[in-house]
Protein backbone atom coordinates (compact mmCIF):
# COMPACT_ATOMS: atom_id res chain seq x y z
CA UNK A 1 0.00 0.00 0.00
CA UNK A 2 1.44 3.33 -1.04
CA UNK A 3 -0.98 5.57 0.81
CA UNK A 4 -3.63 5.72 -1.91
CA UNK A 5 -6.86 6.89 -0.31
CA UNK A 6 -9.16 7.54 -3.25
CA UNK A 7 -11.95 10.07 -3.48
CA UNK A 8 -15.42 9.77 -1.98
CA UNK A 9 -18.68 11.13 -3.37
CA UNK A 10 -19.46 14.62 -2.10
CA UNK A 11 -21.56 14.39 1.08
CA UNK A 12 -25.28 15.02 0.56
CA UNK A 13 -24.85 15.16 -3.20
CA UNK A 14 -27.93 13.79 -4.93
CA UNK A 15 -25.86 12.09 -7.56
CA UNK A 16 -22.19 11.97 -8.36
CA UNK A 17 -20.91 10.25 -11.48
CA UNK A 18 -17.27 9.68 -12.30
CA UNK A 19 -15.51 8.19 -15.32
CA UNK A 20 -12.24 6.27 -15.42
CA UNK A 21 -10.08 4.88 -18.22
CA UNK A 22 -7.85 1.83 -18.20
CA UNK A 23 -5.33 0.43 -20.65
CA UNK A 24 -3.40 -2.83 -20.66
CA UNK A 25 -1.29 -4.84 -23.05
CA UNK A 26 0.23 -8.31 -22.91
CA UNK A 27 2.48 -10.33 -25.16
CA UNK A 28 1.42 -13.68 -26.65
CA UNK A 29 3.55 -16.72 -25.77
CA UNK A 30 2.98 -20.47 -26.16
CA UNK A 31 1.18 -22.51 -24.93
CA UNK A 32 -2.55 -21.78 -24.62
CA UNK A 33 -5.14 -21.27 -23.45
CA UNK A 34 -5.71 -17.55 -23.58
CA UNK A 35 -7.66 -16.04 -20.69
CA UNK A 36 -9.67 -12.94 -21.56
CA UNK A 37 -12.49 -11.46 -19.53
CA UNK A 38 -12.15 -14.45 -17.19
CA UNK A 39 -12.86 -16.89 -20.03
CA UNK A 40 -10.33 -19.53 -21.11
CA UNK A 41 -10.20 -19.40 -24.92
CA UNK A 42 -8.73 -22.36 -26.79
CA UNK A 43 -5.50 -21.14 -28.39
CA UNK A 44 -1.87 -22.14 -28.97
CA UNK A 45 -0.75 -19.03 -27.04
CA UNK A 46 -1.46 -17.41 -23.69
CA UNK A 47 -0.91 -13.87 -22.44
CA UNK A 48 2.44 -13.51 -20.70
CA UNK A 49 2.28 -11.89 -17.31
CA UNK A 50 2.87 -12.32 -13.60
CA UNK A 51 -0.85 -13.00 -13.11
CA UNK A 52 -2.99 -14.91 -15.61
CA UNK A 53 -2.39 -12.05 -18.07
CA UNK A 54 -6.08 -11.23 -18.53
CA UNK A 55 -5.74 -7.84 -20.25
CA UNK A 56 -9.52 -7.30 -20.30
CA UNK A 57 -9.81 -7.68 -16.53
CA UNK A 58 -6.68 -5.55 -16.00
CA UNK A 59 -7.93 -2.66 -18.16
CA UNK A 60 -11.31 -2.78 -16.40
CA UNK A 61 -9.64 -2.85 -12.98
CA UNK A 62 -7.64 0.28 -13.80
CA UNK A 63 -10.69 2.05 -15.26
CA UNK A 64 -12.71 1.40 -12.08
CA UNK A 65 -9.87 2.40 -9.75
CA UNK A 66 -9.17 5.44 -11.91
CA UNK A 67 -12.76 6.66 -11.71
CA UNK A 68 -12.44 6.85 -7.91
CA UNK A 69 -8.83 8.12 -8.02
CA UNK A 70 -8.17 5.03 -5.90
CA UNK A 71 -4.83 3.88 -7.21
CA UNK A 72 -4.06 1.32 -9.89
CA UNK A 73 -3.72 -2.40 -10.40
CA UNK A 74 0.08 -2.37 -10.07
CA UNK A 75 -0.14 -0.75 -6.65
CA UNK A 76 -2.85 -3.16 -5.47
CA UNK A 77 -1.23 -6.28 -6.89
CA UNK A 78 2.53 -5.88 -7.26
CA UNK A 79 4.18 -8.10 -9.87
CA UNK A 80 7.04 -8.47 -7.37
CA UNK A 81 4.73 -10.21 -4.89
CA UNK A 82 4.93 -14.02 -5.27
CA UNK A 83 1.35 -14.21 -3.93
CA UNK A 84 0.17 -12.66 -7.21
CA UNK A 85 1.93 -15.23 -9.40
CA UNK A 86 -0.63 -16.77 -11.74
CA UNK A 87 -3.40 -14.90 -9.91
CA UNK A 88 -6.97 -15.04 -11.26
CA UNK A 89 -7.51 -11.51 -12.57
CA UNK A 90 -11.25 -11.74 -11.90
CA UNK A 91 -10.33 -11.85 -8.19
CA UNK A 92 -8.21 -8.72 -8.71
CA UNK A 93 -11.13 -6.99 -10.46
CA UNK A 94 -13.43 -7.93 -7.56
CA UNK A 95 -10.93 -6.49 -5.06
CA UNK A 96 -10.81 -3.19 -6.97
CA UNK A 97 -14.61 -3.01 -6.96
CA UNK A 98 -14.61 -3.71 -3.21
CA UNK A 99 -12.11 -0.86 -2.74
CA UNK A 100 -14.32 1.69 -4.52
CA UNK A 101 -17.41 0.36 -2.75
CA UNK A 102 -15.74 1.12 0.58
CA UNK A 103 -15.30 4.69 -0.64
CA UNK A 104 -19.05 4.96 -1.37
CA UNK A 105 -19.19 4.13 -5.09
CA UNK A 106 -20.69 1.41 -7.24
CA UNK A 107 -19.96 0.50 -10.85
CA UNK A 108 -22.68 1.68 -13.22
CA UNK A 109 -21.42 0.45 -16.58
CA UNK A 110 -18.20 -0.43 -18.40
CA UNK A 111 -17.11 -0.55 -22.02
CA UNK A 112 -13.98 -2.36 -23.16
CA UNK A 113 -12.34 -2.64 -26.56
CA UNK A 114 -9.96 -5.52 -27.28
CA UNK A 115 -7.44 -4.68 -30.01
CA UNK A 116 -5.92 -7.83 -31.48
CA UNK A 117 -5.69 -9.73 -34.74
CA UNK A 118 -6.93 -12.80 -32.86
CA UNK A 119 -8.94 -14.30 -31.20
CA UNK A 120 -12.27 -13.31 -32.67
CA UNK A 121 -13.99 -11.55 -29.78
CA UNK A 122 -17.59 -11.96 -30.91
CA UNK A 123 -17.47 -15.73 -30.33
CA UNK A 124 -16.59 -15.22 -26.65
CA UNK A 125 -18.35 -11.96 -25.81
CA UNK A 126 -21.38 -13.38 -23.99
CA UNK A 127 -19.27 -15.67 -21.82
CA UNK A 128 -16.99 -12.76 -20.90
CA UNK A 129 -19.95 -10.55 -19.96
CA UNK A 130 -21.39 -13.35 -17.83
CA UNK A 131 -18.06 -13.88 -16.05
CA UNK A 132 -17.34 -10.17 -15.52
CA UNK A 133 -20.80 -9.14 -14.27
CA UNK A 134 -20.72 -10.74 -10.79
CA UNK A 135 -17.14 -9.51 -10.21
CA UNK A 136 -18.31 -5.94 -10.73
CA UNK A 137 -21.75 -6.24 -9.11
CA UNK A 138 -23.59 -5.25 -12.29
CA UNK A 139 -25.97 -6.91 -14.75
CA UNK A 140 -24.53 -8.22 -18.00
CA UNK A 141 -26.32 -5.46 -19.92
CA UNK A 142 -24.08 -2.94 -18.13
CA UNK A 143 -21.02 -4.54 -19.75
CA UNK A 144 -19.93 -3.92 -23.32
CA UNK A 145 -17.08 -5.96 -24.83
CA UNK A 146 -15.95 -5.07 -28.34
CA UNK A 147 -13.21 -6.39 -30.61
CA UNK A 148 -11.08 -4.61 -33.24
CA UNK A 149 -8.15 -5.73 -35.31
CA UNK A 150 -5.28 -3.30 -35.83
CA UNK A 151 -5.58 -3.69 -39.61
CA UNK A 152 -2.28 -5.59 -39.64
CA UNK A 153 -0.29 -2.60 -38.43
CA UNK A 154 2.52 -2.55 -35.85
CA UNK A 155 3.11 -5.04 -33.04
CA UNK A 156 -0.58 -5.87 -32.72
CA UNK A 157 -0.82 -6.35 -36.47
CA UNK A 158 2.14 -8.75 -36.38
CA UNK A 159 0.26 -10.79 -33.79
CA UNK A 160 2.76 -10.18 -30.99
CA UNK A 161 0.14 -9.42 -28.39
CA UNK A 162 -3.05 -7.76 -27.37
CA UNK A 163 -4.14 -4.34 -26.09
CA UNK A 164 -7.30 -3.45 -24.20
CA UNK A 165 -8.86 -0.07 -23.51
CA UNK A 166 -11.66 0.24 -20.95
CA UNK A 167 -13.93 2.98 -19.69
CA UNK A 168 -15.92 2.68 -16.47
CA UNK A 169 -18.65 4.87 -15.03
CA UNK A 170 -19.12 4.80 -11.28
CA UNK A 171 -21.88 6.48 -9.29
CA UNK A 172 -22.34 7.32 -5.64
CA UNK A 173 -23.66 4.14 -4.06
CA UNK A 174 -26.52 5.86 -2.20
CA UNK A 175 -27.72 7.46 -5.43
CA UNK A 176 -30.95 5.45 -5.69
CA UNK A 177 -31.80 6.00 -2.01
CA UNK A 178 -31.32 9.77 -2.38
CA UNK A 179 -33.46 9.96 -5.50
CA UNK A 180 -36.23 7.94 -3.81
CA UNK A 181 -36.10 10.20 -0.74
CA UNK A 182 -36.57 13.30 -2.89
CA UNK A 183 -39.77 12.05 -4.49
MG1 LIG B 1 -1.83 -6.55 -17.30
Provide a brief overview of the structure.
The protein is built from 6 helices and 7 strands, in the order ββββαααβαβαβα.
Give a structural overview:
Residues 176-183 have low confidence and may be disordered. Helix 4 links the parallel strand 5 (105-115) and strand 6. The longest helix has 14 residues, at 89-102. The strands form two sheets. A five-stranded mixed beta sheet has the order 4-1-7-5-6. The chain has six helices and seven strands. By secondary structure, the protein is α+β, with helices and mostly antiparallel strands. Helix 1 (55-67) runs parallel beside helix 3 and helix 3 (89-102) packs parallel to helix 4. The chain has a single domain (17-182), classed as 60s Ribosomal Protein L30, Chain: A. The structure holds magnesium ion.
What is the H/E string?
Answer: EEEEHHHEHEHEH
Main sheet, how many strands, which sense, barrel?
5 strands, mixed
For this structure, the CATH topology is 60s Ribosomal Protein L30, Chain: A
Proportion of helical residues: 25-40%
N- and C-termini, Cα separation: 42 Å
| Spatial arrangement of strands, main beta sheet | 4-1-7-5-6
CATH superfamily: 2-C-methyl-D-erythritol 2,4-cyclodiphosphate synthase
Overall geometric form? globular
Strand count: 7
Give the C-alpha Rg: 17 Å
Q: Helix- and strand-based class?
A: alpha+beta
Number of helical runs? 6
Amino acid sequence: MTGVVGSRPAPNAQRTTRVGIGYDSHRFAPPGPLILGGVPIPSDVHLEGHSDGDAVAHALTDAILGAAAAGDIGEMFSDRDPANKGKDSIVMLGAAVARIQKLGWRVQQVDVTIVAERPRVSSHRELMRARLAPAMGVDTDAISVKGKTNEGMGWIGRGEGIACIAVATIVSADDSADVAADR
